Amino acid sequence: MSISVLCERSFTLQMIIGYTAGVFDLFHIGHLNLLKNAKGMCDKLIVGVTTDDLVAYKGKHSLIPFEDRLEIVRSIKYVDAVVPQSDMDKLAMCKKLGATILFVGDDWYGTDKWKSYEEDFTKENIKIVYFPYTKGISSTKITHALQTARGWTALYSGESEHLV
Fold this sequence. Notes:
By secondary structure, this protein is an alpha/beta fold. The chain has a single domain, classed as HUPs (Rossmann fold, 3-Layer(aba) Sandwich), CATH 3.40.50.620. The chain is built from 8 helices and 5 strands. Residues 4-10 and 154-164 have low confidence and may be disordered.
């Protein structure tokens, strides 16, 4: 095969960009599994880290501040780039970033909401890949265990969204 044919082929191959998003509060093995598996399916993995304002909008509070969560995720070797996730519109973010794959946990699979999302994403040629939820671990479970074991509820400040 000639060099010109190889060069032509390399220009026709498109980089596969993947996107996933999450709060990533109390980073644990389930988060790592998601990022590792996602990176294995794309050339570039971009991760949206949910802002504190969006976490609050969803009726929750993160224990770790946004800037810290952003830096933790940025430091993971499977992650090529991080962006703030300031709204719930994953389709708009995928289009903005040029992502052709959205990675999510399979706890969303089969829900009416995600069936509708799948139709919308398919129209834009973006594939949704569901990864198995890591059984027995979640930031919520860790938070509850720490609140019980360490008395974190006494440390939680009503004036701040994070531990003081």
